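A common beginner's mistake is to predict each chain separately and then try to dock the pieces by hand. The better habit, illustrated here, is to supply every component at once so that their relative placement is modeled jointly.
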Amino acid sequence: MLELKNIDFAVKEEDGKKATKILSDISLTFPEKSITVITGQNGSGKSTLVKLITGLEKPTRGSIIYNGRDITALSMTERAKLGFTTAFQQPVRFKGITVKKLLDIASGRQSNLGQLCEYLSQVGLCARNYIDRDLDGSLSGGEAKRIELAMAIAKGGDVFLLDEPEAGIDLWSFSDLTNLFSSLRDKTVLIVSHQSKIMEIADNIVLLDKESAPVTGSREEMMPLLEGRSGICAARKGV
Amino acid sequence: MEKLDIDLLMKIADLHGIPEGSYNIRKDGKCLSRNSTSDIEILPKTDKDGIDIIVKAGVKGKSVHIPVILTAGDMLDKVYNDFYIGKGADVTIIAGCGIHNDTCGESRHDGIHTFYLEEGCNVKYIERHYGEGNPEGKKEFTPLTKVYVKKNAHFYMESTQLGGVTYTDRLTTATVYTNGKFTVREKLLTDNNEKAITRFKVKLVGKDSTAEVVSRSVARGNSYQSFISDMVGKNRSFGHVECDSILLDNARILSTPRIDAVSPEASLVHEAAVGKIAGEQLSKLMTLGLTEKEAEDTIIKGYLN
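With all components supplied together, the output reads:
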């Protein structure tokens, strides 16, 4: 189980004096063997939450507990080795590093074509067309995004943090993607998303809001509240 | 050959010993071994130190090795090599120089290379520079490479310096005629107090001539790099210069572009980017389980791959 306890996160303004709070007193629990979708308006701190759990950012207050252990001070590397696997919202490009090399780093072994095919076919790519290509600007946004997800699959782990994994991916591939995410249900899965098709596979939904505490509940409880903009307002008022 | 010679040849030319075909191996200012073939003839110069490499017209898929090694220390080796590439030939030339300097003094190699490419020929020129030995000793290279690319010919140059060279100041000039092509891929790594200056002067004189100079470099420690390119488009032509560099520690990189479209139909582009490794690249690799140091090494290795 993954728990966030009383998390605050603030960033300093350019003048270095004032600080802007992005997250304030957030306490959430993500049970294992379940998919939790985190949603909310732009600027509500969804991606920040992922960065805090990944270790890319450190909270200004509060703690992150994983299976009873306080991991707040652990580095990204240590968390990755502990079983945390992240797919970023914006795929990172590397000049001169091939897709194969990155998948090998992710899996921690030298994969053969069959294994590479297994990772890439799950995100709708043919391995032969990609493994020798650099993950650089020559790939489209959708291709880079799929490879970002393939790296997460290749790495494996126990806690999957997927930040808007559907962004930039064509709509007709959605069902394959949702099937892929569903196949991770035996892990602890957090997906940041606005898409109703992604929410449909969620066990739980967290609605983040800049102004008030997060609203959480099962998909059945949350979906009616999230239908349309007024729904989001209603959910907020219902707290 | 001694073991040291073989090690150096391996590093600069992937040679395990004497190569097949045409070759000229130079050691400490003297010819160690030479072989000519009917396709590629190597003749010693009579007026100065150096060789003429003559590739016959129409020769396809052949290669010639002309490595230089300096192991004596405290010496200056200056050599003039001229390459005459016949019409329609397609060859690979593997050059490069390795210096092993165990002294505290200066070891320097000045390679003055001139390439004359006849019409329709294709040349791949691979040059690696490498230095090792006493850290106090100087290992220096000041090569001058002049290239003349005639109609429909293509000169492709791969220039690599990945360590141990304390000082280099290299100048490469090219004159490209009708529909000719000049391509450079430079890879450079400097560390400690090393200094590297690379200069390119390209004249696109023929109609539809093209040039592409792409330099990727990494500067670490207290090293200094200067990249200077000067491209002139005198006809309907296309030129592209790209200087991409990663800075680490206290290193410094100066990039100076000059593009001169003399002809209104010339299209010339210069791109340059100098900066640290992007934080997001390190983060991504760390979320895959690498330490920060491992991530940095992976990025640099890939970048200079």
